[in-house]
Design a protein that fits this description.
single chain; alpha+beta; Wheat Germ Agglutinin (Isolectin 2), domain 1; two-stranded antiparallel sheet
Amino acid sequence: MVVLEIEDSEKRCSRCKQHKPRAAFASNKSIRDGLQSYCRECAAAYHQQRQVAKGRNVRPRVGVPEGHKCCRTCGEIKPHSEWTRNRSASDGLATLCKSCKAIKGRAGHLKRHYGLTEADRDEMVASQMGLCVICLKAPAVHVDHCHKTGRVRGVLCFNCNSAIGKLGDDPDAVRRAAAYLEGNAWKPTLVAPGVYQLPS
């Protein structure tokens, strides 16, 4: 019984002939046990050999400690906890580390939603002296745009960007809010019995 449990928890790689934990093999539903015949390490080496044979440029393999991986973008060697999972990859991990993936995600968000590069955004922030153009106090961190035209208006702090959004991006509502704060109370005008006109 114990022998069967050990056999079920391991698999023999058909390339290096070593018995390894099942986690060392990528999944393959077309094979009876649901795992690739080669372990992840051998599969990666085999893939690299094939690419070289085809005359393609192949990045040299970097020696890393057990439980670590080298990020292709930043070049840093980091523990597996600094990577997201990717079941289709030979090692079961994403190509980019979490930090680089987050940076790439932010850059993609700027391009998709606002048509800006990070350099464009940074130039706008610099032109505002790094401050929100509304409160002139907090750092400018959120790109603001017109929801009707898509035109980018500037870079605001979180509070100011949220405030104008909750006011519906309506200049009249913003002016009424300013008048209210200055002590000019919002009051409707009686134009007929029971009929009131709202202030513009």
